[in-house]
């Protein structure tokens, strides 16, 4: 083998070795119930959304249940035993981040928490979506009384009457200390509207999260 062929051969083997050495492999493991949630290094994840849902839903339902009990003590004995039906209009993302598949997770977790209470029950999402299509109404239009009455009539025709409308919204605020470090505040807000008297209740929860970029350019979280 001549010198030129030898050099090219060695160079090719070296390049192949470098490429093979740089190529990583992905592994995974199942988290047990006692394992903490992993913390997202670039965006919010389970460590953010689960506590926000638990706090906001818990406070909102607790306050509404107290109000229902107060009304029952004032002369309506059946108010407590009567299950209140909730029409959940979905999760609106107004944050700087793409929520991705967590948007569905947030919806399902809120739905599950409401259904686990003794006082409230969710209307099936499939009926809600069908009712909106039938009434030709967007969720944001339901704050108009005429649209609200039209939607309620459609749902009654589908044998799915409800007592409350429920809206969820995600927002965020970002504070930068320098080009490598910033804080992001995540806010989950729930809005509940009583269909019969128009009364309005609102609850929110917030989590602050810090992001820090190392000298190597990788984003870290704290």
Task: Describe this protein's structure.
The protein is an alpha/beta fold and 222 residues long. The protein has a domain at 46-123 and 162-221: Rossmann fold (3-Layer(aba) Sandwich), CATH 3.40.50. 39% of the residues lie in helices and 26% in strands. It has helices spanning 3-22, 46-73, 102-115, 125-135, 145-157; strands at 84-93, 120-122, 164-176, 181-194, 200-213, 219-221. It has a 6-stranded mixed beta sheet. Helix 2 (46-73) runs parallel beside helix 3 (102-115) and helix 4 packs across helix 5. The longest helix is centred in the first third of the chain and has 28 residues, at 46-73. 19% of the residues are buried.
Under CATH, the topology of the domain at 46-123 and 162-221 can be stated as Rossmann fold
Low-confidence stretches: none
Structural class: alpha/beta
The proportion of residues in beta strands is 25-35%
Reading the helices and strands in chain order gives: HHEHEHHEEEE
Major β-sheet annotation: 6 strands, mixed
By DSSP (H or I, 4+ residues per run), the number of helices equals: 5
General form:
elongated
At the first level of CATH, the class of the domain at 46-123 and 162-221 is Alpha Beta
Mean pLDDT: 81
Helix percentage? 25-40%
Order of strands, main sheet, comes to 2-1-3-4-5-6
Rg, Å, rounded: 26 Å
């Amino acid at each position: 083998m001549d010198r030129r062929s030898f050099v090219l051969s060695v160079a090719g083997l070296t390049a192949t070795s470098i490429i093979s050495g740089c190529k990583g492999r992905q592994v995974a493991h199942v988290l047990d119930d006692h394992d903490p949630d992993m913390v997202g290094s670039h965006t919010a994840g389970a460590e953010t959304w689960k506590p926000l849902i638990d706090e906001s839903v818990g406070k909102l339902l607790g306050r509404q249940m107290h109000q229902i009990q107060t009304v029952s003590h004032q002369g309506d004995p059946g108010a407590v035993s009567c299950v209140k039906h909730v029409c959940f209009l979905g999760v609106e993302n107004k944050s700087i981040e793409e929520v991705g598949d967590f948007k569905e997770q947030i919806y399902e977790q809120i739905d599950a928490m409401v259904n686990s209470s003794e006082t409230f029950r969710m209307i099936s999402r499939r009926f809600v979506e069908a009712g909106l299509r039938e009434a030709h109404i967007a969720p944001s239009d339901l704050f108009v009384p005429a649209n609200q009455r039209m939607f309620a009539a459609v749902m009654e025709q589908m044998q799915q009457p409800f007592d409350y409308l429920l809206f969820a919204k995600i927002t965020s605020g970002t504070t930068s200390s320098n080009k490598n470090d910033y804080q992001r505040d995540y806010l989950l807000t729930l809005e509940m509207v009583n269909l019969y008297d128009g009364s309005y209740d609102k609850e929110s929860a917030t989590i602050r999260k810090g992001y820090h970029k190392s000298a190597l350019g990788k984003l870290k979280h704290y």
